[in-house]
Design goal:
By secondary structure, this protein is of the alpha/beta class. The protein has helices at residues 54-71, 76-92, 94-105, 109-131, 175-180, 195-207, 222-230, 243-255, 278-290, 310-322, 342-358, 393-396, 412-421, 435-444, 482-485, and strands at residues 20-22, 25-27, 34-39, 44-50, 137-143, 146-154, 157-161, 184-188, 215-217, 234-240, 259-263, 268-272, 300-306, 361-364, 383-386, 403-409, 424-425, 427-431, 449-452, 468-469, 472-473, 487-494. Bound molecules: nicotinamide-adenine-dinucleotide.
């Protein structure tokens, strides 16, 4: 590594076997089941993650349960002070944490910094929500001499289960809101990219002074999540992952009588109308499909070109995709990193093969792309299919890689119909100069996050991160909505 030019320094070469974080202490797991953690740009092992034992899961939940009874009594104005400290820690260590994200996930340092900014924004939104939304309501004289009020109460211990692609931001879609409202949490980070959250927890442990048991971290895979769900002291779960995982957790939570909120997978459409300002918006369209190497739940996957813009839009799209520089994300000049694991790369390649079998025409094939400085990395260049129809598997299933399917449509109505037939409903974007087109799109498309001349319609923290159909299982959404998810309402009627 030392011989490679122009790359930012890694914070650590190796993270060892990650410990669980239970009752305010980092505790090595006694489990002999472990998975390796990789740097995907280099194909190097940078640590190991244990699959926690059932006893360790119970110990973490017991600690959170014990802590809950004291934490809920801490006045909210004091709980907020811990969040201010966490914000300061994240700001002070912004660059280091971003570099750990790049090292373990593979995304570029610019993308990692974007995740970190949104991570911090969620702390800020939780602070502001605590001052406003977490307040109750009061009505004087609802009947003669009688007053009524409503208070929000915390519920207890929540499980938080997160995916590999945003290792700090997605845990923070939940943690700040859960703890500021008086709950305690047991977090199960992704077993593929656990290093950034572990690193961040080391900083919080050292510098935040949070009472023990308020945040616990337990490592492992789906089996650990099931053990958490079976535990009677867990009152609810907030999870994000594939639709299969989201649906599974939703069902299990229902079976065990817990509230749950579960973000699932996606298959997002980007529609380009004949009147789109292509020169201006091509960078955001390209970033939608190939940013984060296509591993975003808001990533564009089906590019629908409407009417006579087809030739020009396709030419510009390919020209822009060809300009993307692949490499190790710690090099500031890199535009696109590798896929997260070699298995993920193989899965995407299988979809490319499937597309060819289905009769789609591969006009840009990322499989042949080589990155000479990093020959072992899990790179896959931008890949573009044309002659795709919505019935093809590649147009229907989530690929989660840098693959764009170009689909022709004769009209906006036809494009909207395609989108609404999809099983997924995470995001959809339109590029147009027409307010009429935009309005029709916004009101007719059955998806949770809509972009108008925006390629990645990611809601800021003080809006819910929406999602529909197989992209979301539950009622309340991540980010600000979780103030409702993490509290219950109690109504009191008083005759003095
Ligand atoms: P994944 O479903 O494999 O894993 C997500 C989390 O669930 C991990 O912590 C994992 O250990 C756990 N898990 C896996 N199988 C489980 C099971 N059977 N029971 C209980 N828990 C289980 O997802 P991933 O590959 O880490 O992440 C990528 C997926 O996440 C993509 O489908 C992407 O679209 C989705 N995602 C969705 C959103 C959203 O907001 N809707 C955001 C980011 C990512």
């Amino acid at each position: 590594m030392d011989t490679l030019p122009n790359i930012l320094p890694e914070v650590r070469k190796n993270y060892g076997v990650l410990p669980n974080y239970i009752d305010g202490e980092f505790k090595p797991s006694i489990s002999d089941k472990r998975l390796k953690i990789y740097n995907p740009a280099l194909d190097e092992v940078i640590g190991e993650v244990p699959i926690a034992t059932d006893d360790e899961v119970s110990e973490a939940i017991d600690s959170a349960y014990e802590a809950f009874h004291k934490w809920r009594e801490v006045p909210i104005t004091k709980r907020i002070q811990y969040l201010f400290r966490i914000k300061e820690i994240l700001e002070n260590h912004f660059e280091e944490i971003s570099r750990v994200v790049t090292q373990n996930h593979g995304k570029t340092i610019h993308e990692a910094r974007g995740d970190m900014r949104r991570t911090i924004e969620n702390v800020e939104a939780a602070i502001s929500a605590a001052y406003t939304l977490a307040k109750g309501e009061y009505m004087h004289n609802i009947a003669e001499g009688i007053d009524e009020y409503m208070v929000r109460e915390p519920l207890g211990v929540f499980a938080i289960v997160t995916p590999f692609n945003f290792p700090t931001m997605i845990p923070f879609w939940f943690i700040p809101y859960a703890i500021v409202t008086g709950n305690t949490v047991v977090v199960k980070p992704s077993e593929i990219t656990p290093a950034p959250f572990n690193f961040l927890m080391e900083l919080i442990h050292r510098e935040a002074g949070l009472p023990k048991g308020v945040i616990n971290v337990i490592h492992g895979d789906g089996s650990v999540v099931e053990a958490m769900l079976r535990n009677k002291k867990i009152v609810g779960v907030a999870s994000v992952g594939s639709s299969q995982t989201a649906e599974r957790i939703y069902r299990l939570a229902g079976e065990y009588g817990k509230r749950s909120l579960n973000g699932g997978g996606a298959k997002n459409f980007v529609v380009v109308m004949p009147d789109a300002d292509l020169e201006r918006y091509m960078p955001t369209i390209i970033s939608s499909f190939f940013g984060n190497a296509g591993q975003r739940c808001l990533a564009g996957s089906n590019l629908v070109l409407v009417g006579d813009i087809y030739d020009k839009a396709l030419r510009l799209f390919i020209e822009s995709a060809l300009k993307l520089k692949l490499g190790y994300g710690l090099d500031e000049s890199v535009d696109m990193g590798p896929l997260v694991t070699s298995k993920a790369r193989e899965r995407v390649i299988k979809y490319i093969e499937r597309g060819v079998e289905e009769g789609a025409k591969l006009i840009l094939d990322g499989r042949g792309v080589r990155v000479p400085e990093y020959p072992r990395g899990y790179f896959l260049g931008p890949t573009v299919f044309v002659d795709v129809v919505p019935e093809m598997i590649i147009a229907k299933e989530e690929i989660f890689g840098p693959v764009a399917n170009v689909i022709k449509a004769a009209s906006l109505d036809e494009a909207i119909e395609m989108i609404n037939k999809s099983e997924y409903g995470n995001a959809a974007s339109i590029f147009t100069r027409s307010t009429e087109n935009a309005r029709k799109f916004v009101s007719s498309v059955d998806a949770g996050n809509i972009g108008v001349n925006i390629g990645i319609p990611a809601p800021v923290a003080f809006f819910p991160f929406a999602g529909r159909k197989r992209s979301f299982y539950g009622v309340l959404h991540p980010q600000i909505d979780t103030i409702d998810f993490f509290t219950d309402k109690k109504v009191v009627i008083v005759r003095p």
